[in-house]
């Protein structure tokens, strides 16, 4: 019958590739799992995320972990934290007792992580490495009766375009932290930590300002790039 589908259903991991296609998804799986474990630990502890080289330092400067920047609230008595005066909203409020470890990181990480977790590249990476849909190009994935795309619960991926605005704000915040990292109690100095904190926003900026959503914001939203001078200018910016 002509109504019958042509071919046969592909099994998981079935392929005709002759290269080591499985290396890439395995590295991604290991890398993302390592980051999830480390970031959860770093956010949970709520301590030792700031260093100035001086005990009870009150001057500006020092190394502040990007996971904890900006410090919205700070819990008094914790080790390795900035002075309470550095917190944007002061001491830790009683109504936030439920956050693990009195860690301000829980109030911050939701914004940059929502941007990166829904990024087109990351989506491709964890769809392949975690759900095998498919694990690689021209490799059989988990059999599905119907392809539904990013529907249902996966509609949350659409927050990417809105999370981008928060991600841009964090680029400037981390850039400010990088500048402050070159000072100890107001005195200029260069260390390995200050260089690392400077490289961090530079790389994140390249990632953020080169993402699909930002390019669409700058030069997209047009059906024709050659229909007018303005459209051609938008295409050059894109």
Automatic annotation (TrEMBL):
Q: Does the keyword Nucleotidyltransferase apply?
A: no
Q: Does the keyword Cell membrane apply?
A: no
Endpoints of the signal sequence: none
Keyword annotations: Membrane, Transmembrane, Transmembrane helix
Enumerate the transmembrane spans: 21-44, 102-122, 162-182, 188-209
Q: What is this protein called?
A: Succinate dehydrogenase
Task: Give the organism the record lists.
Answer: marine metagenome
């Amino acid at each position: 019958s002509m109504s019958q589908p042509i071919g046969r259903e592909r099994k998981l991991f079935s392929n005709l590739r002759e290269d080591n296609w499985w290396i890439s998804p395995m590295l991604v799986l290991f890398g993302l799992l390592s980051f999830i474990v480390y970031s959860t630990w770093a956010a949970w502890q709520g301590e030792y995320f700031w260093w100035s080289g001086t005990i009870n330092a009150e001057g500006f400067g020092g190394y502040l972990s990007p996971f904890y920047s900006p410090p919205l609230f700070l819990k008094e008595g914790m080790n390795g934290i900035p002075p309470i005066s550095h917190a944007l909203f002061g001491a830790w409020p009683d109504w936030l007792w439920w956050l693990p470890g009195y860690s301000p990181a829980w109030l911050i990480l939701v914004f940059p992580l929502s941007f990166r977790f829904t990024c087109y590249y990351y989506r491709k990476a964890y769809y392949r490495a975690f759900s095998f849909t498919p694990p690689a190009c021209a490799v059989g994935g988990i059999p599905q009766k119907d392809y539904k795309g990013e529907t249902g619960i996966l509609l949350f991926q659409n927050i990417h375009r809105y999370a981008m605005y928060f991600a841009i704000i964090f680029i400037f915040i981390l850039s400010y932290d990088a500048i402050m990292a070159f000072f100890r109690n107001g005195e200029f100095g260069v260390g390995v930590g200050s260089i690392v904190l400077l490289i961090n926003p530079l790389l994140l900026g390249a990632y953020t300002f080169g993402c699909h959503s930002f390019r669409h914001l700058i030069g997209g939203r047009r059906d024709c790039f050659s229909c007018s001078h303005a459209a051609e200018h938008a295409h050059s910016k894109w």
